[in-house]
Amino acid sequence: MNVVVVGGGVAGIVAALDCAAAGASVTLVEVRPRLGGAAYSVERDGMWVDNGQHVFLRCCTAYRELLARLGSEPLVELQPRLDIPVLAPGRPAASLRRSDARPPLHLARSLLRYSHLSLGERVRAGRAALALGRVDGEDSRTLGDWLAEHGQSPHAIAVLWDLIALPTLNLPAAEASLALGAFVFQQGLLADAAAGDIGLHSAPLQRIIGDPAARVLAQAGVEVHLRWPAQRIATIGSRLAVVGASSWLGADAVIVAVPHDRAAALLPERALRGARWPGALRSSPIVNVHVVYDRRVLPHRFAAGVDTPVQYIFDRTPPEWPGRQYVAVSLSGAREEMGMSTAALRERYIPAIAELLPDAARARVELFSATKEHAATFRAVPGTGALRPPPATALPGVVLAGAWTATGWPATLEGAARSGHAAAEAALAQG
């Protein structure tokens, strides 16, 4: 069986490896000069920066399996237990930390001590968490509306619930789908005590995903063509063809593993018959701010911020940098920041970091830059679930992959990896 995979992100890499392992002849084409898709690194001013701080959880089994296949496990770290330092300007740090007790008791002690909420807010938050564990597939309203109905004040939503909603759904609770929000809290925090332990990438994403994927795909016999812009998918008799700028590739099956807007432009009309997602599934942006200081300013591996523009801040200092520190601020659902210049972002975030980290106020900024992804994820608003398509399309042999497809997960590395497995299974079933 001959399979062509269009797109070299996490979903495309997983799909290609699965198809090759099943004995198919696989070709993967990618328009960029590298693999990795939306999880990539760029070199700026002599240092590597990731386009985003792509964390994962212990429950992200498909993504962790991919890391093992790529030999990248030594380049990531997984918390022994969930522990999120939460910082606020001018106030002592708090933390959200789990114990070894069974859910939901594993978070009870941490919640009762969470100083960014009043005692009454902590008790009401605990009750809401128990109720959220029983929500099942309600996709017609927002998580924020549901939380408000269950006694959560705007302040409590901002300093507790959005700490989880923003980085996982790429939207605040006020805009995000209740169904996806409930899934995140149930899967990551309420189903198993260890499920929400956080995984971090200790090296640039290019070293963790892009470079090892190129090596492992080659070892699996996958033919990879970089800088190969697929323009459309056509039918030639009973077979398929992926048409590029100056050549084409024949196939028995094609896996389209690109963002939803690009996928809609590639697919023939027959494949889109009855599909609701083209033009209806929208996108949400992510902005990352990168700052190099002349000394250490962040005492944590990462931390969340409340009552500050800083959502999450990460220590991304290379090991060969004694004394200096590189921190990255990750901003999810960043529609306002997308329209700001680098100078305007600096004017906002350098003082904000200094308010949050006293040592930063005394440090010298050696470098400041920003990376922007205007369509980082699909927009996880109510009603989105009905728009996300399954792997199979209306045209036999044409299959979809990507975190935006119907994986049940939000747009995460885990969702992308799961979609790759599902796409490979669907493609192979048609051979």
Number of domains: 3
Low-confidence segments, ≥5 residues, pLDDT <50?
Answer: none
How much is the radius of gyration in Å? 22 Å
Number of helices: 13
Shape: globular
Record field, number of beta strands: 20
- How many strands, what sense, and barrel or not for the largest sheet? 7 strands, mixed
Trace the largest sheet across and list its strands: 8-7-16-17-18-15-19
> How far do the termini sit from each other?
6 Å
Q: Which structural class do you get from the secondary structure elements?
A: alpha/beta
CATH architecture of the largest domain: 3-Layer(bba) Sandwich
The CATH superfamily of the largest domain is: FAD/NAD(P)-binding domain
What's the average pLDDT? 96
Strand proportion: 15-25%
Helix content: 25-40%
CATH topology of the largest domain: FAD/NAD(P)-binding domain
CATH C-level class of the largest domain is Alpha Beta
Which features characterize this protein?
Polyamine Oxidase, Chain A, domain 2; seven-stranded mixed beta sheet; five-stranded parallel beta sheet; FAD/NAD(P)-binding domain; 431 residues; alpha/beta
Question: Can you tell me about this structure?
Answer:
With 431 residues, this protein is α/β, with parallel strands linked by helices. The chain contains 13 helices and 20 strands. It folds into three domains: 157 residues, FAD/NAD(P)-binding domain, CATH 3.50.50.60; 95 residues, no CATH class; 96 residues, Alpha-Beta Complex (Polyamine Oxidase, Chain A, domain 2). It is 32% helix and 25% strand. The strands form five sheets. It has a seven-stranded mixed β-sheet with strand order 8-7-16-17-18-15-19. The chain has a five-stranded parallel β-sheet with strand order 10-2-1-14-20, with helices on one face. A three-stranded antiparallel β-sheet has the order 5-9-6, with no helix packed on it. A hairpin with a 2-residue loop joins β11 and β12. The longest helix has 17 residues. The radius of gyration is 22 Å and the shape is globular.
